[in-house]
Write a structure and sequence with these properties.
5 helices; Immunoglobulin-like; mainly beta; single chain; about 10% helix; 6-stranded mixed beta sheet; 2 domains
Length: about 500
């Protein structure tokens, strides 16, 4: 179970991805234990394997300021969490099979709010009897809406009929406060808005999430609609849905993204090194230009790549292999630029330098918007533009108040540049948030090792660790697990341990 944006300081054991944790067998349990020190903001969790996020299982994580640290805005009258997501009639297993067989995801069949909807705003498009989300509010009050795009692959435009959205936070960073009539929220991204209930209550109001950058004439059928219900409302929501952005305006969404700035004067937890530091004046020590491109056949299978490498998850997680010095599991040879060679499948990860200040450029050579996420860190989004990134592109960087976050969008035929300070020990996942790209191999990991072995703050191997792959003989059975018929038995590894012990004992007597 991955917690999107929770940094797990010096504790990648709790990160919940295949490079750090063994899968939890059916009927077993795993208790995550982690600190949220030096973080505030809006985050979410979800299952990280096998397209399971498409089947649900996600939820919100809200980290509030300590009481002694004031908010950079008046305390809201209420706090509401909204999950917006694309939805397909096919199950997550069928979707997974489709993309393996080369069938691209089409426009979603619907957009959901908190797993519900849509509201019956148009009888010709939405039949009756569908459960929808109704958000109950009091007139004249101001609410904080935390909105998360937990979908499969669709960017969504979020808006509320006749109401302004005052953006105040994204993924742990307070932003310069700006009003939007709508905002594009890309896969894996989270935003906080303040919404003041200043309209009359002649009716309810539409809350809308509609697909963006979907090349399909049927996209209008998949608009998600919920209801904002004033306590003194006199009738149902009515009239046309608030207009989405012009789909042909390719610069609207990028201009909007560039307008989101970091509130450098707010008192709150900040990216490490702690404090409001001038990141634009720090010397960059490593540069990685990561290229993606549409899925292609590699060794007869459909795969996606970063810089020509499609990640192959080993049976032994990287972090466990590193802890127990298991050879041959991974290679620290991920290239810092696109290599002139055929694409390949490999377990190649980035050899990060502890406390390096790294520049990463995501170059999107695909035809769809992609989102990229880095576990363990907040990074500064300093630039984005259409075309190919060059060293001259640095002249356009925002070197003062680029927002610090954990997920950034990269538009088709465009690039996005981030800066990140590698001070968090561990092995950290760098991935596409779009499930189709991620599932087919568009990810890698960054290994960050503190050379000062006397650092006692590093979190040790957890007592409840689950072993698999080459280390499966170390696994002990769980005494209180649920006995499903399909739950795999781990008695064989235990027998192997016993046999090895007996052989060692016989050997000692024969010496």
């Amino acid at each position: 179970m991955c917690r999107n944006g929770i940094q797990q300081r010096k504790d990648s054991w709790q990160d919940g991805v295949s490079g750090t944790n063994c899968p939890i067998p059916a009927g077993w349990n795993w208790t995550y234990e982690f600190q949220v020190k030096d973080q505030i903001g809006s985050f979410f969790y979800f299952p990280s394997l096998s397209f399971q996020r498409a089947a649900g299982g996600y939820g919100g994580i809200t980290i509030n300021n300590r009481k002694i640290i004031s908010l950079p805005f008046a305390t809201p009258d209420g706090d509401i969490t909204l999950f917006i997501s694309d939805w397909f009639i096919k199950s997550h297993k069928e979707l997974r099979q489709d993309i393996e067989n080369g069938v691209s995801l089409r426009a979603p069949d619907s957009i959901l709010f908190n797993g519900l909807g849509p509201y019956r705003y148009d009888n010709a498009l939405v039949s009756g009897g569908i459960a929808y989300l109704s958000v109950n509010v009091e007139p004249g009050k101001t609410y904080r809406l935390r909105v998360h795009n937990v979908g499969v692959s669709t960017s969504l435009n979020f808006r509320i009929q006749n109401h302004n959205l005052l953006l105040v936070e994204t993924e742990g960073s307070y932003t310069v406060q700006q009003n939007y009539t709508s905002l594009d929220i890309h896969v894996g991204q989270s935003y906080s808005f303040l919404v003041t209930l200043d309209q009359n209550a002649s009716s309810d109001y539409y809350i809308v999430a509609s697909p963006r950058f979907v090349n399909s004439s049927g996209w209008s059928k998949s608009v998600g609609v919920a209801v904002l219900h004033y306590s003194n409302s006199q009738g149902p929501a009515s009239g046309p849905l608030p207009d989405p952005p012009n789909e042909s305006d390719t610069f609207f969404s990028m201009s909007q993204a560039r307008s989101i700035r970091w509130n450098v004067s707010a008192s709150a937890a900040r990216p490490n090194p702690q404090g409001s530091f001038r990141y634009g004046e720090i010397t960059v020590t490593d540069v990685f230009v990561l290229h993606n491109r549409p899925a292609e056949l590699i060794e007869g299978k459909r795969r996606t790549t970063l810089s020509g490498i499609s990640y192959l998850a080993p049976s032994t997680p990287l972090k466990l292999a590193q802890q127990f010095n298991v050879p041959g599991v991974f290679k620290l040879d991920f290239p810092n630029k696109m290599m002139n060679r055929p694409a390949k499948v490999d377990t190649s990860i980035i050899n990060g330098t502890y406390k390096a200040f790294v520049e990463i450029i995501f170059q999107n050579n695909d035809t769809t918007v992609q989102s990229y996420h880095l576990d363990g860190y907040a990074f500064f989004v300093v630039g984005m533009d259409y075309g190919l990134w060059t060293e001259n592109s640095r002249s356009t960087y925002n070197k003062w108040d680029g927002v610090a976050r954990c997920t950034t969008q990269v538009f088709p035929g465009a690039w996005t540049a981030i800066l990140v300070f590698l001070d968090n020990d561990g092995i950290w996942n760098l991935r596409a948030q779009n499930l189709d790209s991620w599932y087919l191999g568009q990810e890698t990991y960054i290994s960050v090792v503190n050379p000062e072995t006397t650092d006692k703050n590093d979190v040790p191997l957890p007592a409840n660790v689950i072993y698999c792959g080459a280390l499966s003989p170390l696994q002990k059975d769980q005494a209180h697990r649920v006995n499903f018929s399909g739950a795999p038995s781990l008695k064989k590894p235990i027998k192997l341990i016993f046999v090895a012990f007996v052989l060692a004992l016989i050997g000692s007597f024969m010496r």
